[in-house]
Amino acid sequence: MSHILIVEDDRDIAELLQRYLTRAGHVTDALGDGREALVFVRARVPDLVILDLMLPSIDGLEVCRALRRAPETRALPIIMLTARSEESDRIVGLELGADDYVTKPFSPSELVARVGALLRRAQRWAESGNAVLSFGPIELDRERHLVTAAGQPVRLTAKEFLLLEYLMQHRGRVLSRDLLLTDVWGYRYTGGTRTVDVHVRRLREKIPVLGAAIDTVKQFGYRLIEAPRGERR
Fold first, then answer.
1. First to last CA, the chain
2. Contact 106, 50 (CB under 8 A)
3. Euclidean distance between CA atoms 116 and 99, whole angstroms
4. CA angle at 130 for the pair 124 and 131, rounded to the nearest 5°
């Protein structure tokens, strides 16, 4: 049973989230103020935070920044929830360390599924005991939500980060598109498996070494391999 903290100043939305999350088997608390949320978390660290962007006293971005600075909450899963859908807001939130970004209006069932996906990822981290994954010149820092290639930072979206992490964790294994959707996206994505291909293409574009290292298994999925130098698939 996981403890979810909802930081949302709209009481109707907070109550809706509590109802759906409780139904899914989680224990919830809800607060409507950013400063109160930080005090709460310092006293009792939850398993995941759903964090609204626009909050009284301290906004969601500042709360996220404060949580990522503190060692005890550096790896705390955070879903940013906001009515603002501008790309710049999403980028800022993700760069500060939010694990996912959901815009209002949203599907409560989908949000619950995303919560489940992030909790499963956090469990895998705890079991592996390894905060940094390496693959050739690529390093993925789970706690700081950073990726570097040959020492240079690479800007990835939340889903690109999760996909790369999953591939690195399961290197050598052939992973179907359906499995990737279930374990990375956390639910049956309504846009179909094509979204996996799009995200793989973006990873290959942003990190050229992955052009050879992510092997396409025709009509099935992908696997991360140690490809010979200069070879591309």
1. 43
2. no
3. 13
4. 95
pTM of the complete model beyond 0.85: no
| pLDDT tens digits in sequence order for the chain, 233 residues long | 899 999 999 999 999 999 999 999 999 999 999 999 999 999 999 999 999 988 988 999 899 989 988 888 887 889 988 876 555 555 665 666 778 888 888 889 989 988 988 888 777 766 665 678 899 999 998 877 789 999 999 988 778 888 999 999 888 999 999 888 877 876 554 556 788 899 999 999 999 999 989 999 988 999 999 754 443 33
The DSSP bridge partners found for residue 146 are 141
Q: Cβ atoms within 10 A of the Cβ of 208, count?
A: 11
User: Which contiguous run of DSSP H or E holds residue 217?
Assistant: strand 214-217
Vertex 70: Cα angle to 21 and 106 (nearest 5): 30
What is the DSSP code (8-state) at residue 186? S
Q: Which domains does the chain have, with CATH numbers?
A: 3-125 (3.40.50.2300), 130-224 (1.10.10.10)
Radius of gyration of the CA atoms of the chain, in A: 18
Other CB atoms within a 10 A radius of the CB of residue 219 amount to: 7
